Amino acid sequence: RRRMVGGGALSGKHVIVTAGPTHEPIDPVRYIANRSSGRQGFEIAGALAAIGAEVTLVAGPVALPTPAGVRRVDVETALEMAEAVEQALPADAAVMVAAVADWRAEPSATKIKKGGDGAPPPLRLVENPDILAGLAAAKKRPGLVVGFAAETNDVLDHATAKRARKGCDWIVANDVSGDVMGGSDNTVHLVTDAGVESWERLPKPMVAARLAQRIAEALGGLKT
Ligand code: CTP
Ligand code: CA
Fold this sequence. Notes:
The chain contains five helices and 14 strands. The chain has helices spanning 39-50, 78-88, 131-136, 155-166, 204-220; strands at residues 14-19, 23-27, 30-33, 54-59, 70-74, 93-96, 103-105, 125-127, 144-151, 170-175, 185-186, 188-192, 195-198, 202-203. Bound molecules: cytidine-5'-triphosphate (CTP) and calcium ion. CTP binds at residues 102, 111, 129-132, 148, 162, 166. GO terms for molecular function: FMN binding; metal ion binding; phosphopantothenate--cysteine ligase activity; phosphopantothenoylcysteine decarboxylase activity.
């Protein structure tokens, strides 16, 4: 485990970050996934490490370099991500940025063939566990649990409802009706028990730095 020489606002704190999509196999050559570049989550992991946190980044399949000073655990499916998060506990805070696939298939061991009768094969889907909600209800719950909500419409209503439903402390709501996905900027709203704080459109590294700072302030106020 790394040591920060000279401290930093999050020195001595362990933060878990999930990022990227998950891939849920259908057969050996096909999968279901959400659209996610992983960039915002990786930026957040890097920004937390930059101010001294010990960061465990649980990453779905993405083509991104590991940020400096971050311990990275690569996973593919939602079930693997849930397991890796559990293994990473205890933590002082968790930031769940991953675009977790809501459903998984019962994968076929062999490649599904097109067949000749014209009917496409049915996909039987099973709901994945909610990693964020599970963590927020866990015995070893981190003191600060932050979720993300990517929404295309009624962003604040959905985000506020999601915060309550999942039992997390903060939701970072993200309007993805434009070209945020894979883009370099992000427009977010921070939903806390104190209400909604809307941030101006910022480059993803600046969203990350500001969020890391807010997390440091919140943890500084907690007795751990
Ligand atoms: N999340 C999670 N595990 C899941 C689904 C979501 O940890 N199986 C987390 C995401 O990482 C994010 C938050 O929950 O921090 C919100 O994800 P989102 O997909 O917006 O929430 P859902 O409850 O799946 O709602 P929706 O029907 O809008 O997809
Ligand atoms: Ca979802």
